[in-house]
Design a protein that fits this description.
It is a single chain. Helices cover 28% and strands 26% of the residues. The chain has a 5-stranded parallel β-sheet with strand order 3-2-1-4-7. A two-stranded antiparallel ribbon has the order 5-6. The radius of gyration is 14 Å and the shape is globular. The chain starts with a strand and ends with a strand.
Length: 117
Amino acid sequence: MNTIAIVGLGYVGLPLLLAYARKGFNSIGFDIDPAKPETLLAGRSYIKHIPTTQVAEALAAGTLDATTDFSRIAEADAVTHRAQFIARRATGAAGFLHSLSLRRFLRTPLLLSIITS
């Protein structure tokens, strides 16, 4: 079975994670906020429009996992990351700082999708 990694479990990442899990993909969600993986692994949703039943069903099917351990990205066959351009006050530069920091965990060959807003 293919493994999909979703980086960022907010209002874009969590629905995407659940969509892959419902289709039968091993889906691992990554977030720097430990409360998000903890809540998901307890079978609950933290986003108002996403029913807790969807999370519980994906957990019961064994297709959903969530973590703050970014080294586990190496388990994935494909990675999707929603990157926001964030202006750095010190330099005024914008960029994919978080995306670049993930490089050390990625293996090749790998499908990487970056969604920007």
